[in-house]
Design goal:
170 residues, alpha/beta, OB fold (Dihydrolipoamide Acetyltransferase, E2P), 6 strands, 31% helix, 25% strand
Length: 170
């Protein structure tokens, strides 16, 4: 009887340890992605979201774009390191309180679609990083970010930026 209890206890311990190892492995992978994507210095030559949209030709282009996190709700994806970036000129003059939400005329409407870019942080293979950008970079709505990557306008007219670097102004 004691032998069966010990075997069961060992199995539970190994299973729990295995889960912990998987969690640590995932955290290590995400930490490596954050280190790869987060830039130590702001890249030069950043243009605003509106300037970028005006300058894009039909093909994907290398870009550096600056804006504020936000412009559409929800701002962040929970499944991927994706978020909305809005042209700084499109933001209202007043400061938003935390969670001002649908009662705020700006928040309920959002920014003009031309002033918003969808940013997708991608890994070295071009795949979406599988964690929210808010968690990955400790990113919050309203912060200014400089994104380095490639951009194009999709068939629906959305400005898409595939980020291979991000600098967050603190």
């Amino acid at each position: 009887m004691l032998r069966n209890f010990t075997a069961c206890g060992l199995l539970v311990l190994l299973t729990a340890t295995g889960c912990d190892c998987q969690s640590k492995s995932l955290n290590a992978e995400l930490s490596a992605e954050r280190d790869r994507l987060q830039l130590a210095a702001e890249p030069p030559g950043a243009v605003s979201v509106l300037e970028l949209r005006e300058s894009l030709t039909g093909n994907s282009q290398d870009v550096v774009v600056v804006g504020r996190v936000g412009g559409s709700k929800p701002v962040f994806s929970a499944q991927h390191a994706s978020f909305f970036l809005v042209d700084p000129a499109a933001l209202p003059e007043h400061q938003h309180a935390d969670g001002c939400g649908d009662n705020c005329p700006y928040c309920s409407k959002g920014a003009d679609d031309n002033a918003v870019a969808m940013v997708h942080c991608v890994d070295a293979q071009g795949e979406a990083v599988p964690v929210g950008a808010d968690r990955l970079f400790d990113l919050a709505e309203g912060q200014t970010a400089v994104i380095q990557g490639t951009a194009h306008v999709d068939e629906s007219g959305n400005l898409i930026v595939l980020a291979n670097g991000i600098y967050i102004r603190r």
